[in-house]
């Protein structure tokens, strides 16, 4: 099922995508992710998908990102595989939705794209075991880990480079029923494929990441784990159009503009 958060008539709503239409739900996104029987939440309202404004699917307290988590990306960089996940945070103020604009900051001269599959946490998670990870996952989405690469190299750590407003496009939906271990993942820059891989090449699987991260910090409902990017990372310029996609989720599209 594809859960979507959207705006209609000046109000924020939750919906279920069925046959290019959105069936409005009486439940919130998180309530929907935690209840497998959504039929009881359906309202009579239905909207054509092209008539609504899609919002970021959740409002997380944090975005936990994983660096260097694809074998082919490590090979591309001629780097050894990490022994444990390398993690960092993006602030909730960096979140934008499908078709929102990524703002290219004047303080940077190299802003890069990084297509990623995102895990949506549905329940409070602390010190969980890998075998129980599925109980805490509401679904999956697409995330673009936008990075000011020159500032990352200049600072020697990643906070400033990863944290600008608009540097975490997320969406367009949450897919609740898919196999995260075998998903084609790609990114197009102005229609040209730049990243093209599969989640089966991830070094640390979804369940491993959830166990590792939850033993460091409490994950709240709505939090996102960005699972790393495949090879082909590159730069964007104002005016560029970016399409990041995961096979069973869909395509997250954004435009780059100057601040």
Describe the structure.
This protein is mainly β. The chain folds into two domains: 2-54, no CATH class; 63-258, Fumarylacetoacetate hydrolase, domain 2. The chain is built from five helices and 20 strands. The chain has helices spanning 29-33, 71-76, 149-155, 159-162, 206-214, and strands spanning 2-8, 11-18, 21-25, 42-48, 53-54, 63-67, 86-90, 95-96, 101-104, 111-113, 115-121, 137-144, 147-148, 168-175, 184-189, 192-198, 224-226, 234-236, 241-246, 250-258. Strands 1, 2, 3, 4, 5, 6, 7, 8, 11, 12, 14 and 17 form a twelve-stranded mixed beta sheet that branches. A five-stranded mixed beta sheet has the order 9-20-19-15-16, with no helix packed on it. Strands 13-10-18 form a three-stranded antiparallel beta sheet. β1 (2-8) and β2 (11-18) form a beta hairpin. The protein is globular. The mean pLDDT is 95.
Run of helices and strands: EEEHEEEHEEEEEEEHHEEEHEEEE
Mean pLDDT: 95
Q: What do we call the CATH topology of the largest domain?
A: Fumarylacetoacetate hydrolase, domain 2
Strand portion, in percent? 35-45%
SS elements, strand count: 20
Low-confidence stretches: none
The biggest beta sheet is recorded as: 12 strands, mixed
